[in-house]
Each structure stands twice: as C-alpha cells, then as structure tokens.
Automatic annotation (TrEMBL):
<protein>
    <submittedName>
        <fullName>Ornithine cyclodeaminase</fullName>
    </submittedName>
</protein>
<dbReference type="Pfam" id="PF02423">
    <property type="entry name" value="OCD_Mu_crystall"/>
</dbReference>
<dbReference type="InterPro" id="IPR036291">
    <property type="entry name" value="NAD(P)-bd_dom_sf"/>
</dbReference>
<feature type="signal peptide">
    <location>
        <begin position="1"/>
        <end position="21"/>
    </location>
</feature>
<keyword id="KW-0732">Signal</keyword>
<dbReference type="InterPro" id="IPR023401">
    <property type="entry name" value="ODC_N"/>
</dbReference>
<dbReference type="InterPro" id="IPR003462">
    <property type="entry name" value="ODC_Mu_crystall"/>
</dbReference>
C-alpha cells in the first residue's frame, strides 16, 4: 500500500462541511443507490470489551471498506472511543485510491446523515429549540449539522459529564444561539431532540415530547441498546436509513417490538423515501417524528468519495 494518498482528520474536516456531506448522501440516493441492498456490517467482540466492525460497500465507480474499532475503555486512557481506517478503491479495478481516517469519517458522516433527515423532517419557518444529548465529538458534529439546516433559537445540552456539557454549551453560544445545560425534562419544550450518546437505556420520557417535535437517535447500532423509549416509538412516525438494517440493529425499534408494543410495519418510511419525494416534507404534525440511524456502509462510501474528490489527490 506504499504510495497510497492518506487523508488525516484535520484535512478531512477542512474539505467538507456537514451540509456538503449531506449533499453527497442525497446525490447517492437520487443516483439510484439502494440502501436495502447494502451488506450488513460484520462485528466481532475483542478481548477487553471492545468491538471490531467491518463495513464494505460498492456503488458506481467506487468501492470501499471501513475497519472501525469501538473501545469503551479508551476515554479513560485518554484515547478516542472510536478508531479505524477507511480504504477507498477504484470500482472497476479495485485499485486502492486513498486511506482515510476512519474515526474522522464517522464523525463527519453520522451528522451528515442526520442533517439530511432533518432537511425533510424538522419544522421549518421559525427558529427552533434543540435539546442535545451527549457532549462528545458526535454532539459537536450534530450541533453544527443542525445549524446547517435550521435556525436555532436555543440549544440545551444534556450530558452525564457536566463539564463536557458546559463546554459544548459555551461552544454553541459562539455559533449564535443561546445555549445552556439542562435535564431530560427539557424535551417537553423542544422542537428538535438529538441523541448521540453511548447510553443503553432510554434517555428521557417519551410522553414529554411534543406532537410537532423531531427526534434523531444515532448512538446505538445494537439490538438491545436504545436511547429512546417505547412510549416515544409507539407515538412517533418512524423513519430509518433502511428497513432491513433497522430491523436487524436498531434497539430503539427492536426492544418495543419484542415487548409487543409495535410491529415491524411500524416504520413510516426511509431516508430514500424522503429524499426521493415519496414522503411529504415535514411529516405528520399530529405526532413526533423519529429518525433512527444505525450507520451504514453506503454512507461511509458516499462521504469518502466526496472527500477524495474534494481533495483532488
């Protein structure tokens, strides 16, 4: 692999905004990419409590694979929780084209997916109140993603790490909106709720979420872990990246289904339905909108290609 161009985290962050990455995802869907045909991720447990993920994809003139590690003990060691690399390949020849920082790619890709969903689901025409759960890299990315698609009147940060929550609220204020720390009960007055945590149990009472609010949950891809509760899922119009992926990995949906509260037909639509205009923008206002993301390999590929082409390497 000698001589393959490498894209590190710093240059990647400068090459593509969350909005531009969302545009790349939309272009892939409008170009005919079918998320339902995307291969499932492979996952193996690693001694010591970690998890190794393998996520391959191919579309158009490119292919690629992300090798990602999830190491829950890393923050205590002063290391990132998410590690990894992305190998981008020329599709026809499978010749390696570039090696990208996998953690930085995930940090960009996940908020971009959420931004694309919010373009179609979030209330429009007025400044919105955001309640943001989490204070890690994904929380920062999702703050910027939300600001790229809607004007925010206020940001309320809810996190276990109170110091981290204060720092994120302070950063949010530098971007324009008023911001403070808060509690899970703040979802009662939220227009947007974004969950990007490592929680395995619901973060808030779903009964509190207003009928016109939009909730985005991105923190888990495990069938037994969830950030939202059964009450919210049962009330909400639910959108996902792929029905197959959600019914395989989304604990936010699989736990309520196992409880008998919903069936597999509870999903309202997919990201491709929203982008392709097969679902009305804004969704039904009579209930909350929930977008549940598990993260998929086609998204990594679309954003990696956009980064590679923007770099001109």
């Amino acid at each position: 692999m000698t001589g393959i161009p490498q894209l590190a985290a710093g240059p990647m962050a400068a090459l593509l905004t969350p909005a531009a990455a969302a545009d790349a995802l939309a272009a892939a869907l409008l170009g005919g990419l079918d998320p339902e045909s995307c291969p499932p991720r492979s996952a193996i447990d690693v001694p010591g409590g970690g998890e190794l993920l393998l996520m391959p994809a191919a579309s158009g003139s490119y292919a690629g694979v992300k090798i990602a590690g999830v190491a829950p003990g890393n923050p205590a060691r002063g290391l990132p929780r998410i590690t990894g690399s992305y190998l981008l390949l020329d599709g026809p020849t499978l010749r390696p084209l570039a090696l990208l920082d996998g953690a930085a790619l995930t940090t960009l890709r996940t908020p971009a997916v959420s931004a694309l969903a919010l373009r179609h689901l979030a209330p429009a025409g007025r400044p919105l109140r955001l309640v943001l759960f989490g204070s890690g890299p994904q929380a920062y990315g999702h703050l910027e993603a939300a600001l790229s698609v809607r004007e925010l009147a206020e940001v309320v940060v809810v996190a276990r790490d109170l110091g981290g929550a204060e720092r994120l609220a302070a950063y949010a204020r530098t971007l324009g909106p008023a911001a403070r720390t808060g509690t899970p009960k703040d979802v009662a007055d939220a227009d947007l709720v974004i969950c990007c945590t490592t929680a395995r149990e619901p973060l808030f009472d779903g009964h509190l979420v207003g009928p016109g609010a939009t909730v985005v949950a991105v923190g888990s891809h495990e069938p037994t872990a969830r950030e939202t509760d059964t009450a919210l899922v049962r009330r909400a119009a639910v959108y996902v990246e792929s029905r197959a992926a959600a019914l395989r990995e989304a604990g936010d949906l699989l736990v309520p289904e196992a409880e008998g509260a919903i069936g597999p037909g509870h999903i309202t639509g997919t990201l491709a339905d929203l982008v392709g205009g097969r679902m009305p923008a804004g969704g039904p206002r009579s209930c909350p909108q929930l977008f549940k993301s598990v993260g998929m390999a086609w998204e990594d590929l679309a954003v990696a290609v956009a980064l590679f082409e923007a770099a001109g390497v």
